[in-house]
Amino acid sequence: MSIGRTSFRHNNSSLPRYRRGWVDGAVAAIEADQCRTADTHLIRLMVPALAGIDIYLKDESTHPTGSLKHRLARSLFLYALCNGQIHEGTPVVEASSGSTAVSEAYFAQMIGVPFYAVMPRTTSAEKIAAIGHYGGKCHLIDDGRALYSEAASLATRLNGHYMDQFTFAERATDWRGNNNIVESIFTQLKGEPRPVPDWIVMGAGTGGTSATIGRYLRYCQFPTQLCIADVEHSAFFDCFRYQDRSRTCERPSLIEGVGRPRCEPSFVPTVVDRMMKIPDAATIAAMNVLSRRLRRPVGGSTGTNFLALCRLASEMCSAGQAGSLVTLICDSGERYRQTYYKPEWLKARNIDPTPYEAELIRFLEAGHPPGFTIADVTNPLNARGAAGLR
Protein backbone atom coordinates (compact mmCIF):
# COMPACT_ATOMS: atom_id res chain seq x y z
CA MET A 1 0.00 0.00 0.00
CA SER A 2 1.49 3.33 -1.00
CA ILE A 3 1.17 6.51 0.98
CA GLY A 4 0.04 9.40 -1.20
CA ARG A 5 0.36 13.11 -0.71
CA THR A 6 -3.20 13.32 0.63
CA SER A 7 -2.16 11.30 3.72
CA PHE A 8 0.36 13.94 4.69
CA ARG A 9 -2.06 16.77 4.01
CA HIS A 10 -4.64 15.09 6.18
CA ASN A 11 -2.21 15.06 9.15
CA ASN A 12 -0.89 18.59 8.67
CA SER A 13 -2.10 19.68 12.12
CA SER A 14 0.46 17.39 13.80
CA LEU A 15 3.47 18.86 11.98
CA PRO A 16 5.75 21.50 13.59
CA ARG A 17 4.37 25.00 13.18
CA TYR A 18 7.17 26.63 11.23
CA ARG A 19 7.61 27.45 7.58
CA ARG A 20 10.05 25.29 5.68
CA GLY A 21 10.05 28.01 3.06
CA TRP A 22 11.64 30.40 5.56
CA VAL A 23 14.47 27.94 6.23
CA ASP A 24 15.01 27.51 2.48
CA GLY A 25 15.21 31.27 2.10
CA ALA A 26 17.67 31.60 4.99
CA VAL A 27 19.98 28.96 3.51
CA ALA A 28 19.75 30.65 0.09
CA ALA A 29 20.64 34.04 1.62
CA ILE A 30 23.75 32.64 3.31
CA GLU A 31 24.82 30.80 0.17
CA ALA A 32 24.32 33.97 -1.89
CA ASP A 33 26.57 35.84 0.55
CA GLN A 34 29.30 33.27 -0.05
CA CYS A 35 28.95 33.67 -3.82
CA ARG A 36 29.39 37.44 -3.44
CA THR A 37 32.47 37.02 -1.28
CA ALA A 38 35.80 36.64 -3.08
CA ASP A 39 38.42 34.27 -1.69
CA THR A 40 40.88 35.77 0.77
CA HIS A 41 44.39 36.64 -0.39
CA LEU A 42 47.39 34.40 0.08
CA ILE A 43 50.24 36.86 0.69
CA ARG A 44 53.86 35.90 0.15
CA LEU A 45 56.04 37.55 2.78
CA MET A 46 59.36 38.46 1.19
CA VAL A 47 62.26 37.70 3.56
CA PRO A 48 65.55 37.82 1.58
CA ALA A 49 67.59 36.64 4.57
CA LEU A 50 65.77 33.29 4.49
CA ALA A 51 66.90 32.01 1.11
CA GLY A 52 64.97 28.91 0.06
CA ILE A 53 62.22 29.43 2.65
CA ASP A 54 58.92 30.72 1.26
CA ILE A 55 56.48 32.19 3.80
CA TYR A 56 52.80 32.65 3.00
CA LEU A 57 50.04 34.36 5.00
CA LYS A 58 46.38 33.53 4.32
CA ASP A 59 44.69 36.87 5.03
CA GLU A 60 41.38 36.06 6.72
CA SER A 61 40.97 39.64 7.94
CA THR A 62 39.42 40.59 4.58
CA HIS A 63 36.18 38.68 5.18
CA PRO A 64 33.06 40.90 5.49
CA THR A 65 33.18 40.57 9.29
CA GLY A 66 36.96 40.90 9.47
CA SER A 67 38.20 37.55 10.70
CA LEU A 68 38.74 33.84 10.14
CA LYS A 69 35.57 33.22 12.16
CA HIS A 70 33.44 34.38 9.24
CA ARG A 71 33.95 30.95 7.66
CA LEU A 72 33.02 29.17 10.88
CA ALA A 73 29.92 31.29 11.51
CA ARG A 74 28.64 30.61 8.00
CA SER A 75 29.16 26.87 8.45
CA LEU A 76 27.53 26.84 11.90
CA PHE A 77 24.43 28.66 10.65
CA LEU A 78 24.06 26.34 7.67
CA TYR A 79 24.58 23.33 9.94
CA ALA A 80 21.90 24.48 12.40
CA LEU A 81 19.44 25.47 9.68
CA CYS A 82 19.80 22.20 7.80
CA ASN A 83 19.47 20.23 11.04
CA GLY A 84 16.19 21.96 11.82
CA GLN A 85 17.51 23.80 14.87
CA ILE A 86 16.90 27.38 13.71
CA HIS A 87 13.49 28.46 12.46
CA GLU A 88 11.85 31.81 11.83
CA GLY A 89 12.30 33.97 14.92
CA THR A 90 14.54 31.52 16.81
CA PRO A 91 16.91 33.40 19.16
CA VAL A 92 20.49 32.27 18.57
CA VAL A 93 22.96 32.25 21.46
CA GLU A 94 26.74 31.77 21.32
CA ALA A 95 29.59 31.55 23.82
CA SER A 96 32.50 33.49 22.37
CA SER A 97 35.59 35.56 23.06
CA GLY A 98 34.40 38.00 20.41
CA SER A 99 35.25 37.29 16.79
CA THR A 100 32.86 34.36 16.28
CA ALA A 101 30.09 36.41 17.87
CA VAL A 102 30.76 39.30 15.48
CA SER A 103 30.44 36.96 12.49
CA GLU A 104 27.39 35.16 13.87
CA ALA A 105 25.67 38.49 14.54
CA TYR A 106 26.21 39.32 10.87
CA PHE A 107 24.53 36.12 9.67
CA ALA A 108 21.74 36.36 12.25
CA GLN A 109 20.94 39.85 10.99
CA MET A 110 21.05 38.56 7.41
CA ILE A 111 18.33 35.95 8.03
CA GLY A 112 16.38 38.04 10.55
CA VAL A 113 16.77 36.17 13.85
CA PRO A 114 17.76 37.62 17.26
CA PHE A 115 21.36 37.04 18.35
CA TYR A 116 22.90 37.01 21.84
CA ALA A 117 26.63 36.73 22.57
CA VAL A 118 27.79 35.49 25.97
CA MET A 119 31.34 36.80 26.39
CA PRO A 120 33.95 37.62 29.04
CA ARG A 121 33.69 41.17 30.31
CA THR A 122 37.31 41.66 29.18
CA THR A 123 36.38 41.30 25.49
CA SER A 124 37.67 44.26 23.48
CA ALA A 125 35.33 47.23 23.16
CA GLU A 126 35.80 47.15 19.39
CA LYS A 127 34.36 43.63 19.17
CA ILE A 128 31.43 44.52 21.43
CA ALA A 129 30.69 47.51 19.21
CA ALA A 130 30.87 45.32 16.07
CA ILE A 131 28.35 42.86 17.51
CA GLY A 132 26.00 45.73 18.26
CA HIS A 133 26.51 47.10 14.76
CA TYR A 134 25.06 43.87 13.36
CA GLY A 135 22.09 43.96 15.74
CA GLY A 136 23.43 41.48 18.31
CA LYS A 137 23.13 41.81 22.06
CA CYS A 138 26.11 41.21 24.38
CA HIS A 139 25.73 39.31 27.64
CA LEU A 140 28.98 39.94 29.52
CA ILE A 141 30.14 37.78 32.44
CA ASP A 142 33.02 38.11 34.91
CA ASP A 143 34.01 34.44 35.20
CA GLY A 144 35.11 33.03 31.86
CA ARG A 145 34.78 29.49 33.21
CA ALA A 146 30.99 29.98 33.29
CA LEU A 147 30.86 30.87 29.60
CA TYR A 148 29.46 27.54 28.42
CA SER A 149 26.86 27.04 31.15
CA GLU A 150 25.63 30.63 30.98
CA ALA A 151 25.22 30.44 27.18
CA ALA A 152 23.27 27.18 27.44
CA SER A 153 21.15 28.61 30.25
CA LEU A 154 20.40 31.82 28.33
CA ALA A 155 19.34 29.81 25.27
CA THR A 156 16.96 27.80 27.46
CA ARG A 157 15.49 30.96 29.02
CA LEU A 158 14.95 32.48 25.58
CA ASN A 159 13.60 29.23 24.11
CA GLY A 160 16.37 29.63 21.55
CA HIS A 161 19.24 27.68 20.02
CA TYR A 162 22.70 27.49 21.61
CA MET A 163 25.08 27.39 18.63
CA ASP A 164 27.95 25.94 20.73
CA GLN A 165 30.90 26.57 18.42
CA PHE A 166 33.24 24.68 20.73
CA THR A 167 31.39 21.42 20.13
CA PHE A 168 30.21 21.77 16.55
CA ALA A 169 33.06 23.61 14.81
CA GLU A 170 34.83 20.40 13.74
CA ARG A 171 31.69 18.84 12.23
CA ALA A 172 29.97 21.87 10.67
CA THR A 173 32.73 22.39 8.08
CA ASP A 174 33.20 19.92 5.23
CA TRP A 175 36.83 18.85 5.73
CA ARG A 176 36.91 16.93 2.44
CA GLY A 177 36.73 20.11 0.39
CA ASN A 178 33.88 22.38 -0.74
CA ASN A 179 36.17 25.43 -0.68
CA ASN A 180 37.22 25.08 2.93
CA ILE A 181 40.23 27.12 4.01
CA VAL A 182 42.90 24.48 3.41
CA GLU A 183 41.57 23.56 -0.03
CA SER A 184 41.73 27.26 -0.84
CA ILE A 185 45.36 27.42 0.34
CA PHE A 186 46.46 24.55 -1.87
CA THR A 187 44.60 25.96 -4.87
CA GLN A 188 46.33 29.33 -4.42
CA LEU A 189 49.75 27.67 -4.05
CA LYS A 190 49.57 25.76 -7.34
CA GLY A 191 51.65 28.27 -9.29
CA GLU A 192 54.26 28.80 -6.56
CA PRO A 193 57.87 27.44 -6.60
CA ARG A 194 57.10 25.06 -3.73
CA PRO A 195 53.34 24.43 -3.97
CA VAL A 196 53.17 21.77 -1.24
CA PRO A 197 54.10 23.42 2.07
CA ASP A 198 56.24 21.66 4.64
CA TRP A 199 54.13 23.11 7.45
CA ILE A 200 50.81 24.81 8.01
CA VAL A 201 50.72 26.71 11.33
CA MET A 202 47.42 27.36 13.06
CA GLY A 203 46.27 28.54 16.46
CA ALA A 204 43.49 26.78 18.35
CA GLY A 205 40.33 28.43 19.67
CA THR A 206 37.53 25.98 19.06
CA GLY A 207 39.92 23.55 17.37
CA GLY A 208 37.61 23.32 14.36
CA THR A 209 39.93 24.87 11.78
CA SER A 210 42.88 22.75 12.85
CA ALA A 211 40.67 19.64 12.60
CA THR A 212 39.65 20.63 9.07
CA ILE A 213 43.26 21.21 8.04
CA GLY A 214 44.61 18.01 9.57
CA ARG A 215 41.86 15.84 8.10
CA TYR A 216 42.18 17.39 4.65
CA LEU A 217 45.95 16.81 4.58
CA ARG A 218 45.39 13.12 5.24
CA TYR A 219 42.42 12.83 2.88
CA CYS A 220 44.47 14.29 0.00
CA GLN A 221 47.63 12.42 1.10
CA PHE A 222 49.76 15.55 1.32
CA PRO A 223 53.05 15.25 3.25
CA THR A 224 52.43 18.67 4.80
CA GLN A 225 52.54 18.69 8.59
CA LEU A 226 50.27 20.66 10.92
CA CYS A 227 51.71 22.68 13.80
CA ILE A 228 49.37 24.16 16.40
CA ALA A 229 50.55 27.30 18.19
CA ASP A 230 48.95 27.46 21.62
CA VAL A 231 49.07 30.42 23.99
CA GLU A 232 50.42 30.85 27.49
CA HIS A 233 47.18 30.25 29.41
CA SER A 234 45.41 27.38 27.67
CA ALA A 235 44.68 23.68 28.15
CA PHE A 236 45.30 22.53 24.57
CA PHE A 237 49.08 22.12 24.84
CA ASP A 238 48.94 19.93 27.95
CA CYS A 239 46.08 17.94 26.44
CA PHE A 240 48.35 17.15 23.50
CA ARG A 241 51.54 16.63 25.51
CA TYR A 242 50.03 14.27 28.09
CA GLN A 243 47.40 12.66 25.85
CA ASP A 244 44.76 13.67 28.36
CA ARG A 245 41.58 15.51 27.43
CA SER A 246 40.75 16.23 31.08
CA ARG A 247 43.52 18.86 31.40
CA THR A 248 42.30 22.34 32.31
CA CYS A 249 43.73 25.83 32.82
CA GLU A 250 42.29 28.07 35.52
CA ARG A 251 43.65 31.37 34.19
CA PRO A 252 41.97 32.73 31.03
CA SER A 253 43.97 33.45 27.90
CA LEU A 254 44.96 37.08 27.30
CA ILE A 255 45.08 36.46 23.54
CA GLU A 256 41.52 36.69 22.25
CA GLY A 257 40.34 34.00 19.87
CA VAL A 258 42.89 31.35 20.86
CA GLY A 259 43.53 29.31 23.97
CA ARG A 260 40.81 27.70 26.08
CA PRO A 261 40.40 26.70 29.76
CA ARG A 262 39.57 23.13 28.70
CA CYS A 263 40.27 20.80 25.79
CA GLU A 264 37.29 21.68 23.60
CA PRO A 265 35.27 18.87 21.96
CA SER A 266 36.16 20.22 18.49
CA PHE A 267 39.91 19.95 19.13
CA VAL A 268 41.25 16.78 17.47
CA PRO A 269 44.81 16.19 18.77
CA THR A 270 45.32 13.08 16.64
CA VAL A 271 45.52 15.12 13.41
CA VAL A 272 48.16 17.48 14.86
CA ASP A 273 51.85 16.73 14.22
CA ARG A 274 53.41 19.25 16.59
CA MET A 275 52.45 21.87 19.14
CA MET A 276 54.22 24.91 20.55
CA LYS A 277 53.23 27.00 23.56
CA ILE A 278 53.93 30.66 22.90
CA PRO A 279 54.44 33.14 25.79
CA ASP A 280 52.17 36.18 25.65
CA ALA A 281 55.16 38.54 25.37
CA ALA A 282 56.42 36.59 22.35
CA THR A 283 52.95 36.73 20.78
CA ILE A 284 52.82 40.52 21.11
CA ALA A 285 56.39 40.83 19.80
CA ALA A 286 55.61 38.76 16.70
CA MET A 287 52.40 40.73 16.18
CA ASN A 288 54.37 44.00 16.23
CA VAL A 289 57.16 42.76 13.95
CA LEU A 290 54.76 41.33 11.38
CA SER A 291 52.56 44.44 11.47
CA ARG A 292 55.54 46.63 10.60
CA ARG A 293 56.53 44.33 7.73
CA LEU A 294 53.00 44.34 6.33
CA ARG A 295 52.56 48.07 7.02
CA ARG A 296 49.21 47.38 8.70
CA PRO A 297 48.23 46.02 12.13
CA VAL A 298 47.36 42.38 12.72
CA GLY A 299 45.68 40.80 15.74
CA GLY A 300 47.27 38.99 18.65
CA SER A 301 46.47 35.45 17.51
CA THR A 302 48.26 36.20 14.24
CA GLY A 303 51.35 36.99 16.32
CA THR A 304 51.03 33.58 18.01
CA ASN A 305 50.92 31.89 14.59
CA PHE A 306 53.82 33.91 13.20
CA LEU A 307 56.11 33.22 16.14
CA ALA A 308 55.65 29.46 15.71
CA LEU A 309 56.20 29.78 11.95
CA CYS A 310 59.49 31.63 12.55
CA ARG A 311 60.61 28.86 14.88
CA LEU A 312 59.97 26.27 12.15
CA ALA A 313 61.64 28.42 9.50
CA SER A 314 64.71 28.78 11.73
CA GLU A 315 64.95 25.01 12.12
CA MET A 316 64.69 24.51 8.36
CA CYS A 317 67.42 27.11 7.75
CA SER A 318 69.73 25.49 10.31
CA ALA A 319 69.21 22.10 8.66
CA GLY A 320 69.87 23.51 5.18
CA GLN A 321 66.33 22.67 4.05
CA ALA A 322 64.33 24.56 1.44
CA GLY A 323 60.54 24.64 1.55
CA SER A 324 57.43 26.66 2.19
CA LEU A 325 55.33 27.45 5.25
CA VAL A 326 51.80 28.83 5.56
CA THR A 327 49.99 30.50 8.43
CA LEU A 328 46.98 32.78 8.87
CA ILE A 329 46.29 36.44 9.47
CA CYS A 330 43.31 35.74 11.70
CA ASP A 331 42.00 39.28 12.06
CA SER A 332 43.01 42.93 11.95
CA GLY A 333 44.86 44.71 14.72
CA GLU A 334 42.34 47.55 14.56
CA ARG A 335 40.23 45.58 17.03
CA TYR A 336 43.01 45.72 19.63
CA ARG A 337 44.11 49.37 19.64
CA GLN A 338 43.09 49.68 23.28
CA THR A 339 44.74 46.41 24.38
CA TYR A 340 47.70 44.73 22.66
CA TYR A 341 48.84 47.94 20.95
CA LYS A 342 48.57 50.09 24.07
CA PRO A 343 51.76 50.27 26.20
CA GLU A 344 49.79 51.01 29.37
CA TRP A 345 47.70 47.85 28.91
CA LEU A 346 50.82 45.72 28.46
CA LYS A 347 52.59 47.31 31.43
CA ALA A 348 49.62 46.65 33.72
CA ARG A 349 49.95 42.96 32.87
CA ASN A 350 53.76 42.80 33.10
CA ILE A 351 54.15 41.97 29.42
CA ASP A 352 57.39 43.16 27.83
CA PRO A 353 57.69 42.13 24.17
CA THR A 354 60.97 44.02 23.60
CA PRO A 355 63.47 41.13 24.00
CA TYR A 356 61.47 38.86 21.71
CA GLU A 357 61.11 41.64 19.12
CA ALA A 358 64.88 42.12 18.98
CA GLU A 359 65.46 38.40 18.39
CA LEU A 360 62.79 38.16 15.70
CA ILE A 361 64.12 41.18 13.86
CA ARG A 362 67.64 39.69 13.87
CA PHE A 363 66.25 36.46 12.46
CA LEU A 364 64.18 38.06 9.70
CA GLU A 365 66.84 40.58 8.69
CA ALA A 366 69.99 38.48 9.00
CA GLY A 367 68.87 34.88 9.37
CA HIS A 368 70.31 34.48 12.90
CA PRO A 369 68.40 31.81 14.87
CA PRO A 370 66.31 33.39 17.66
CA GLY A 371 67.96 33.08 21.05
CA PHE A 372 64.84 32.25 23.04
CA THR A 373 63.27 28.86 23.70
CA ILE A 374 59.60 27.90 23.85
CA ALA A 375 57.79 24.77 24.97
CA ASP A 376 57.47 22.36 22.08
CA VAL A 377 56.25 18.78 21.63
CA THR A 378 55.76 16.50 18.62
CA ASN A 379 52.94 13.99 18.25
CA PRO A 380 53.69 11.32 20.88
CA LEU A 381 51.58 8.66 19.19
CA ASN A 382 53.13 8.17 15.78
CA ALA A 383 53.93 10.08 12.60
CA ARG A 384 50.29 10.56 11.70
CA GLY A 385 48.62 10.19 15.11
CA ALA A 386 46.87 6.84 14.74
CA ALA A 387 45.76 6.26 18.33
CA GLY A 388 43.18 8.24 20.24
CA LEU A 389 43.36 10.22 23.46
CA ARG A 390 41.55 8.93 26.49
Could you explain the architecture of this structure?
The chain has 390 residues and is of the alpha/beta class. It has two domains: 37-67 and 175-378, Rossmann fold, CATH 3.40.50.1100; 69-170, Rossmann fold (3-Layer(aba) Sandwich), CATH 3.40.50.1100. It has 14 helices and eleven strands. Mean pLDDT is 91; it is low at 1-15 and 384-390.
How do you describe this structure in short?
This protein has 390 residues and is an alpha/beta fold.
List the helices and strands and how they pair.
Blueprint: H1 5-10, H2 20-36, E1 42-45, E2 53-59, H3 69-82, E3 92-95, H4 99-111, E4 115-120, H5 125-133, E5 137-141, H6 147-157, E6 161-162, H7 165-172, H8 181-188, E7 199-203, H9 208-219, E8 225-231, H10 236-242, E9 274-278, H11 280-294, H12 300-318, E10 323-329, H13 343-348, H14 354-366, E11 375-378
Parallel strand pairs: 2-10, 3-4, 3-6, 4-5, 7-8, 7-10, 8-9
Antiparallel strand pairs: 1-2, 9-11
Structural class: alpha/beta
Number of distinct helices = 14
User: How many discrete structural domains?
Assistant: 2
Low-confidence stretches: 1-15, 384-390
The CATH topology of the largest domain comes to Rossmann fold
Shape: globular
Spell the H/E element sequence. HHEEHEHEHEHEHHEHEHEHHEHHE
| Average pLDDT for all residues | 91
Distance, first to last CA: 50 Å
